[in-house]
């Protein structure tokens, strides 16, 4: 059961009938390229995602794969090129400012940089009071407001609250600032948190504490969380389901345990089997098959084909959709299709190793 941050009225909670809280289908974003008429960056292309209450979905991928763009599209901070966005099964596209305010109350975003996202000239009390008043009622003041602030700080484990409430951001650690940013998001009593690399700028020693806090919010408040990260190991620890992105497309989805323990897509295999040394991954991938593709003129077919040791003509010409492989798992790789001309997959690291031994790309 959700417990509201205060007794103030909140948007009607929808019955949990299994309908996703938030769902996007065919999500696409193309950015125009300045100075090149007609050219676009294919940042996100045809992505389907569903977020359920009380569930963490990790969106994993290397830099430039489109993760942040997806977060901004889900937050409706910019228009999409194509695709639908539904909240509880109903079109949630905002067209006016008022609609946007109502949407933001339900879908809140947490940013990577807690240093940049809190205004340095305001105390924690000011920052949180402002958010509480916006979302829970402009008239809230005095003891009632204090109680709401206390509840929020308790929720993010900044207690005793007196120690933090009159502090300025520069008087707090990175982890404490991120907790304040999370408290500010919680003031809206949201159903969805979009967390864009929420721990990547924090000290390694405090990252786990923030993930545990988010996990606790998922459990206690039944919030749906989109957790964006380039660190697939943290996705395994923290997320119920994982979607792996490559060059603007989702290449693999499934429960986090299966995706990380038994990766199916050659890209996910490379990502996981090279961990924990990302340089190893980059070196192997570069040594074997070059850099991540241009998103202005992306490769035809599977976008991973130029780096994939198993790619065939089919992979170079036709785009694979997500293929059901087992237990709700999907893999966008022709290797799992029943086509006669499908590629025969082998061990991805062996293949790269062989290539390197043979002196580069064949
Ligand atoms: N406003 C914009 N105008 C033009 N191109 C953009 C814009 N925003 C993002 N892009 C491009 O879209 C692609 C995806 O970027 P995005 O930031 O979503 O990736 P990401 O996976 O979040 O990467 P990172 O982890 O580095 O933030 C990149 O090629 C990026 O340069």
Ligands present: adenosine-5'-triphosphate
Highest-level CATH class of the largest domain? Alpha Beta
Order of helices and strands: EEEHEEHEHHHHEHEHEEHHHHEEH
CATH fold topology of the largest domain: Rossmann fold
Task: Provide the residue-averaged pLDDT.
Answer: 87
User: Helical residue percent?
Assistant: 25-40%
How widely separated are the two ends? Answer: 58 Å
If strands are numbered along the chain, what order do they take across the biggest sheet? 6-7-8-3-9-10-12-11
> In one word, what is the shape?
elongated
- The figure for the number of domains is 2
Residue fraction in strands: 15-25%
Q: How many beta-strand runs?
A: 12
Unreliable stretches, pLDDT < 50, 5 or more residues? 1-14, 284-290
CATH architecture term of the largest domain: 3-Layer(aba) Sandwich
Global Rg: 22 Å
Number of helical stretches of at least 4 residues: 13
Structural class by secondary-structure content: alpha/beta
How many strands, what sense, and barrel or not for the largest sheet?
8 strands, mixed
CATH homologous superfamily name of the largest domain?
Answer: P-loop containing nucleotide triphosphate hydrolases
């Amino acid at each position: 059961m959700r417990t509201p941050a205060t007794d103030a009225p909140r948007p009607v909670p929808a019955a949990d009938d299994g309908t996703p809280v938030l769902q996007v289908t065919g999500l696409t974003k193309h950015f125009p390229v300045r100075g090149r008429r007609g050219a676009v960056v294919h940042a996100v292309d045809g992505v389907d995602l569903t977020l359920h209450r009380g569930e963490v979905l990790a969106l994993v991928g290397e830099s430039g794969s489109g993760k942040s763009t997806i977060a901004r599209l889900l937050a409706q901070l910019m228009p999409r090129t194509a695709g639908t966005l539904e909240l509880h099964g109903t079109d949630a596209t905002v067209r006016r400012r008022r609609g946007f305010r109502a949407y933001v109350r339900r879908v809140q975003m947490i940013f990577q940089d807690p240093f940049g996202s809190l205004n340095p000239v305001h105390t924690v009390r000011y920052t949180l009071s402002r958010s509480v008043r916006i979302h829970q009622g402009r008239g809230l003041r005095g003891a009632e407001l204090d109680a709401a602030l206390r509840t929020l700080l308790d929720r993010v484990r900044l207690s005793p609250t007196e120690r933090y409430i009159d502090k300025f951001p520069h008087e707090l650690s990175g982890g404490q600032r991120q907790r304040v940013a999370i408290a500010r998001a919680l003031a809206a009593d949201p159903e969805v948190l979009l967390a864009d690399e929420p721990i990547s700028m924090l000290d390694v020693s405090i990252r786990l504490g923030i993930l545990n806090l988010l996990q606790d919010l998922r459990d206690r408040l039944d919030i749906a969380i989109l957790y964006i990260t380039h660190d697939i190991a943290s996705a395994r620890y923290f997320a119920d389901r994982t979607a792996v992105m490559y060059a603007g497309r989702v290449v693999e989805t499934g429960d986090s345990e299966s995706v990380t323990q038994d990766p199916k897509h050659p890209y996910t295999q490379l990502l996981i089997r090279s961990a924990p040394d990302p340089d190893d991954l980059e070196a192997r991938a570069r040594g074997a098959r070059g850099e991540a593709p241009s998103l202005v003129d992306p490769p035809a077919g599977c976008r991973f084909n130029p780096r994939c040791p198993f790619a065939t003509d089919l992979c170079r010409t036709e785009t694979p959709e997500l293929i059901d492989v087992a237990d709700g798992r999907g893999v966008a790789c022709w290797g799992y299709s029943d086509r006669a001309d499908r590629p025969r997959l082998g061990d991805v690291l062996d293949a790269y190793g062989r290539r390197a031994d043979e002196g580069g790309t064949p």
